[in-house]
């Protein structure tokens, strides 16, 4: 059991976390023909959109209700109704994700009532689904905002059919924000190899993977899970849940569909990959394809080859709880010492980690712990570059945002193949960082004549 440390300082000096509205908007970016709408100030949404564009290097569909000082005091309901009507008329989306922010939450905005007012004033847009999500900046992090948006989509878009016919070859997948588009592509192929048809909610793997479309440009999301597929989730035989942050969303889906679920904390590592593969074999009633035996053998060989790089290495890990926990358990399993772990927000999973303590804090806290405990390698997003330089440690980039490397969002670290790639990436960083000791030369040595 890890001890949870909470710094007493009154402010965040070098922020680690991204806000809940960013996470909620990210979830809606994985839905086809969708427009996320943040109910807050114009500058906040512009900042979030910039984050997305730098991380994914793609055009991002994101709008704002543009609250100002007047509407903040007197009420911004009209802004919401006008924004919804404008988006419906100009962009013709199938889904609008209405995300609150710290500003609208502090103002006391009643978003469900405002959505009802929109329905009353604009019945011509009854076919457009509006999914309201409460996502204050003052609470949680990207991961919790993402999970809240998924739960809201389930409550709004999935029909309530707890009994009835189920498609035995169709499974639902709820994957946390810790999985990249590259991870989700790997996950889909993994499930399809067993003859199952997955419905991923959301599916940023098919919307933010970086691809060109025939029409050249769209004001809405490119790809993603469709509204029709979300409605068909009620007919799935089972649900696969990846990430403990998705527990509430999984509970909501189970209540609406009656389908059993299988939950996994992460899919990084040999043991986690074995468990997921066995679950797919049981759900499908099919034997494990031979290719997975080959991939497993490659992973175990990589673990043997790189064990000396990891053994005794001092590692620092930072990030949201699902990603942090997965990487802490990965490094621990490889024989490294995780000497510093800093999470962006509290989570029940943190106490279960196999290390002495986990701090809830920012990158300043992370840098302080890593320096005091002599970390050789630190794991952080791109905001950790300067900390790594000051520490003299090597940096493994993970999380959000990563804006100083091309294709980081396409990296896949899950499954047998993904874990193998992660082992090689971390081992190479440790090998390049290793400083060989200079040989001792006695002061009494005499040069040969």
TrEMBL record:
Biological pathway: Cofactor biosynthesis; Fe-Mo cofactor biosynthesis
GO molecular function list: oxidoreductase activity
Gene3D superfamilies according to UniProt: 6.10.250.1090, Nitrogenase molybdenum iron protein domain
Domain Nitrogenase/oxidoreductase component: from-to ranges: 19-430
InterPro entries reported in the protein's UniProt record: ChlB/BchB/BchZ, Nase/OxRdtase_comp1, Nase_Mo-Fe_CF
CDD domains, A to Z: Nitrogenase_NifN_1 (cd01966)
Coiled-coil intervals, chain numbering: none
Cited function: This protein may play a role in the biosynthesis of the prosthetic group of nitrogenase (FeMo cofactor).
Protein name in UniProt: Nitrogenase molybdenum-iron protein NifN
Stored Pfam families: Oxidored_nitro
Range of residues in the leader sequence: none
Family: Belongs to the NifD/NifK/NifE/NifN family.
GO biological process, one term: protein-containing complex assembly
């Amino acid at each position: 059991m890890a001890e949870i440390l909470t710094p007493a300082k009154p402010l965040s000096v070098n922020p680690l976390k991204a806000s809940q509205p960013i996470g909620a908007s990210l979830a809606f970016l994985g839905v086809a023909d969708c427009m996320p709408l943040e109910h807050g100030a114009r500058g906040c949404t512009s900042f979030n959109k910039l984050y997305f564009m730098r991380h994914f290097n793609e055009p991002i569909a994101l709008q704002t209700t543009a609250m100002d000082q007047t509407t903040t005091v007197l009420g911004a309901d009209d802004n919401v109704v006008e924004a919804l009507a404008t988006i419906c008329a100009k962009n013709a989306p199938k889904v609008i994700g209405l995300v609150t922010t710290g500003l609208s939450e502090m103002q006391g905005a009643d978003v469900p009532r405002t959505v009802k007012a929109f329905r009353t004033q604009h019945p011509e847009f009854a076919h457009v689904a509006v999914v309201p999500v409460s996502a204050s900046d003052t609470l949680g992090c990207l991961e919790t905002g993402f999970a809240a948006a998924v739960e809201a989509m389930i409550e709004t878009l999935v029909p309530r059919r707890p009994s009835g016919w189920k498609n035995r070859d169709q499974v639902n997948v709820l994957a946390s924000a810790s999985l990249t588009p590259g991870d989700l592509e790997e996950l889909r192929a993994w499930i399809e190899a067993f003859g199952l048809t997955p419905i991923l909610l959301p599916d940023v793997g098919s919307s933010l993977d970086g691809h060109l479309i025939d029409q050249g440009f769209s004001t809405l999301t490119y790809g993603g899970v469709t509204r029709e597929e979300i409605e068909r989730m009620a007919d799935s035989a089972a649900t696969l849940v990846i990430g403990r942050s998705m527990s509430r969303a999984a509970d909501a889906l189970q209540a609406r569909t009656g389908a059993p679920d299988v939950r996994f904390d992460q899919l990084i590592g040999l043991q986690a990959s074995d468990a997921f593969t066995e679950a797919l074999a049981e759900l499908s009633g099919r034997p494990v394809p031979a290719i997975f035996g080959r991939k497993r053998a490659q992973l175990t060989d990589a673990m043997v080859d790189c064990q000396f790089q990891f053994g005794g290495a001092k590692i620092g890990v930072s990030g949201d709880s699902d990603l942090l926990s997965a990487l802490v358990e990965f490094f621990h399993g490889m024989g490294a010492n995780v000497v510093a772990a800093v999470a962006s927000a509290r989570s029940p999973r943190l106490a279960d980690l196999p290390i002495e303590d986990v701090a809830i804090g920012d990158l300043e806290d992370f840098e302080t712990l890593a320096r005091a405990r002599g970390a050789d390698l630190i794991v952080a997003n791109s905001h950790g570059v300067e900390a790594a330089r000051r520490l003299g440690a090597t940096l493994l980039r993970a999380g959000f945002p990563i804006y100083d490397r091309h294709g980081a969002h396409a990296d896949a670290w899950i499954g047998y193949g993904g874990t193998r790639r992660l082992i090689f990436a971390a081992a190479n960083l440790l090998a390049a960082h290793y400083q060989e000791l200079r040989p001792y030369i006695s002061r009494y040595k005499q040069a040969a004549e």
